[in-house]
Amino acid sequence: MLKVAVASENKMVCGHFGHCETFEVFDTENGKILTNKSIPNPGHRPGFLPNFLHELGVNTIISGGMGGGAVDIFNEHNIEVILGAQGSSEEAVKAYLAGALTSTSSICHEHSHHDECGE
């Protein structure tokens, strides 16, 4: 069982991890999606969301962009980070499961530079 979370807005991959509306959490097995749960973003505070998703049992996080601090915390928890994704959250997970989605390393260095995050 692999649990994949997607930082989402209206079921689409969100451009910036911390500012997403929901986390679409997919339980997957043998390359197939078993269940999909929509979890409201509990709030953006430094270091909080990576630990929140870790406690949910997430193995992989997919987002458009993300700050370096969050990436570091996910790495500490051995959670795979896939950045630079776009489009439907479910399609992004299917592409990931098929091995067709790889991270473009779109780390946002400054929250004031929105263009780095694709926003």
UniProtKB/TrEMBL annotation:
* Superkingdom in the source lineage: Bacteria
The protein's matches in Pfam families, at most eight in alphabetical order, are given as: Nitro_FeMo-Co
Instruction: Report the residue ranges that make up the Dinitrogenase iron-molybdenum cofactor biosynthesis domain in this protein.
Output: 10-97
Q: Which InterPro entries match?
A: Di-Nase_FeMo-co_biosynth, DiNase_FeMo-co_biosyn_sf, MTH1175_dom
- Coiled-coil zones: none
**By what name is this protein known?**
Dinitrogenase iron-molybdenum cofactor biosynthesis protein
